[in-house]
Amino acid sequence: MYVIKGENELGQTELSIRRTGTARKWFDLQQSQDNDESIDVTVIEANTGGVIVNIGGGLRGFVPTSQLDNARIFPLGGYSSKEEAGKELQAKLAELIGTELEVKVIEIDREKNRVIFSEKQVTNDIDPEKREETLEKVNVGDVLEGEVTGIAPFGLFVNAEGLEGLVHLSEISWDKVTNPADFHKVGDKVKVQLIGVDNGGKRIAYSIKRLQKDPWDEIIKKFKVGQRVTGEVTKIVDYGAFVRVEDGLNGLIHISELSDKLVKDPGKIVEVGKEYELEIISMSREERHLGLSLKRVNSSSPQPVAESVSESTVSPEMARLSEYLDEDGETEADKKDSE
């Protein structure tokens, strides 16, 4: 029994049955983790990061989305779009409410009243010895052979030599990735580079693109500031227009570079899907995009000589371009889910 007070004013020892049950449950959880044993829990709530489960004894735990069985929540073929991915994932998580899961404890912190579980470590038949063996021998930067085990809105799950980790969508390809399923499917054999090991190997980060040649090695050689190129307008926003110059190479015509005249609506100057001759006015290897100008091609008056952007300086056009890519690429929710 849990002793609340050694002796009260009546000379009696005060005990708590509820706290005794809670203390016992913490002990059982620690034993389960130490012995690598699974336990049953019930899903009582779902949120964007995973599901909250009832452990018993007045305790609750958390199963992150990344630790749920891939087959349970992620479609084999991926998602049709990023927007649909978020909706489908949230719906799948909500469907789990009331479901009993068999899980293993992967993190326990009594002081913070926190318990993290993994369903994958039960359903994926992970060999603990193989996993530990790989963890002991690999270092960040090593290249491993792996297999895609799941496709999530935020990236690919890859099992490499018993060590499952995440290839975040920003590490899949040098091209912009909005749907990981456009690049790989479940069962694909892939080579990955280990780029991060966190919390004793509980979180593993891999990269596929770092094993591929960076296209900007050739882009820097092929294009120069002041050069004229042809590009297709792919999106119009209130501060300008985004343009695809070639596969993997995108740029921005800032609103100030659309015309010599004052422009309030970029849509009145350029059209989506239409090609234009443009001039490169800035390049940033770091930002991996181009600053482009339409007015310098159409203008008859002399224009100042453009200067390339240094690695440490980002032009307003480049800053805007980064905002656009964040909108369609990595979000804060994605970061949290990959953790």
From TrEMBL:
**Its Gene Ontology molecular function terms?**
nucleic acid binding
Q: Pfam families annotated for this entry?
A: S1
Start and end residues of each stretch annotated as Disordered: 294-339
Q: Which stretches does UniProt call biased (Polar residues)?
A: 296-315
Signal peptide positions on this chain: none
Q: Which GO terms describe its cellular component?
A: ribosome
The S1 motif domain sits at 36-120, 141-209, 226-295
Which SUPFAM superfamilies does the record match to this protein?
Answer: Nucleic acid-binding proteins (SSF50249)
The family database entries (SMART domains) matched by this protein are listed as:
S1
Q: Entry's InterPro entries?
A: NA-bd_OB-fold (IPR012340), Ribosomal_protein_S1 (IPR052757), Ribosomal_protein_S1-like (IPR035104), S1_domain (IPR003029)
Q: Which UniProt keywords apply?
A: Ribonucleoprotein, Ribosomal protein
Record's function text = Binds mRNA; thus facilitating recognition of the initiation point. It is needed to translate mRNA with a short Shine-Dalgarno (SD) purine-rich sequence.
PANTHER family from the xrefs?
OS03G0844900 PROTEIN (PTHR47559)
Q: What is the protein named? A: 30S ribosomal protein S1
Q: According to the entry, what is the taxonomic lineage of the organism?
A: Bacteria, Candidatus Dojkabacteria
Q: Which gene encodes it?
A: rps1
